[in-house]
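Dear Dr. V.,

Thank you for agreeing to look over these. As mentioned in my earlier message, I'm a first-year student in the group and I'm still getting used to reading structure tokens, so any feedback on how I've presented them would be very welcome. I ran two proteins. I've put each sequence directly above its structure. The first is here:
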Amino acid sequence: MSEEREPAMADRTYAVAEVEGAYFVGRQSGLYRLAPSNGGARNLYRGWQPEAEIATLDIATSPRYGKDGLIMTGINGGVARSEDGGASWTALAMRMPAPLVTCLALSPSFASDRRVLAGSYEDGMFLSDDAGESWAPFNFGLFDHNIFCLALSPDFPVDGLVMAGTSSGVYRSANGGRLWADLTMPSGDEAVLSLAFSPEYADDRTILAGTESQGLLRSDDEGLTWEPFHRCEGAVNSIVCLPTVAGLAIQVDDSVLAYETGDGRWRQVAAAGVHVAAKSEDGRALLLGMADGSVRRILMEAEE
């Protein structure tokens, strides 16, 4: 199969994921698959929509579902799904007019319950219990329909806890996204751009929220109350929690900081050029989607 030229630097990266050692990168022009060496970027939509540029704002994967793993992407118009590692694609119909899907989340028990949550810009929340074949909007109590990010509790199949970051704050659902409650934030009406549950959530009940201008917030009571955790200049666009000594990293504008859980220090791991940060497939490394279209992998270890 022929390789394509690397997209231009203006082709913004919105999402990055790792599946079986390969990187999947969502960009303004489509969804790309890169080898670990970052060579041979290939737009996976070309066989589906040869002439179209399809902005891909989020990527959700389930490697253990289907023959070669399932990939779902949030696009302008709804959700696209592949069940063969990106070789072929299906557009999953949502209500008309078709929404711009900004974020996706698969249930931790997706292989059995097939539940997907999709947040959109201006149209709120959509739920599917059949891997995206059908969708229903659930905006009860959700007064801000501009959803920027989603996070599911590690025990979501049992507790049904979902957090949604919007243009005016955080909403919480305790029944799988069907009913929402607006949470009071210390910064007032502030856009929340990123959310993450602690890997030890069952014990510490900690949730983190990255804001547009008020830094990183922390809740230790399942999201009911919040307090400042790290004040910084710039937008906290990504939060990555890793089960290692350096257990937390945040993307602030286009740089990345890591938090040393042992001594409470922050250190810079990337100075500039980062469009998005995510967790590696094994959960031990940071994946950074860079401005030049490449992906950097950084093993998170504590400094001496």
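The second protein is here, in the same arrangement:
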Amino acid sequence: MEDWIARLSGLGLVCAIYFANVASPGPSNMAVMALSMERGRRAGFALAAGVIAGSFTWAGLAAVGVAAVLQAYAGALTFLKIGGALYFFYLAWRAAKSACRAQTPAPESTALDRREGMRLFVRGYLMHVSNPKAILGWVATMAMGLRVGEDAAPLAAILGVCFAIGCAVFASYVLVFSSAAMAALYARIRRWVEAGFAVFFAYAGVRLLTARL
């Protein structure tokens, strides 16, 4: 009984930390919010699905110990850090280019074809999987939630509950920021929003390049 209480307590701690991490403002969250306001919920869900897939790619690698191996090799993390920073700079350039448009573009159809949906999914996936901090975060999560010699049940519980939390958080972002009120607000202040995202992504890129991993 005490063992199960300890396991549940550990799982609760892991889930609380994961929720705080996934719900806090970051490049992925901000991108999902902006796209949901600009393109609607279908586009927002496609991007968010890619972000979640990227996150749980690292979760799976951390679970089998591959991420810990990557962590031991500074060169691998350095390569990922540079790649991630370059991708953030690319997102900053896209946002800055959009902010320079004098007029608000005509609203695009909320119906996405398969090709466009996949493009947004890949964009979200690359945004998250190219960030080496995601590796370290999942390594720490697994280390906190698992004990040496345990069976696969606690691992499955951690991954399952965190997956549900991630889906709920990003779905909430999409639904809130794709509302008619938010879309109308975005149309009025689009250039300021895009300029803000350009600065934010550029800052994220610089921080990633200068961070000690």
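From my reading of the second output: Confidence is low (pLDDT under 50) at residues 105-109. The CA atoms of residues 8 and 58 lie 23 Å apart. Does that match how you would interpret it?

Kind regards,
E.
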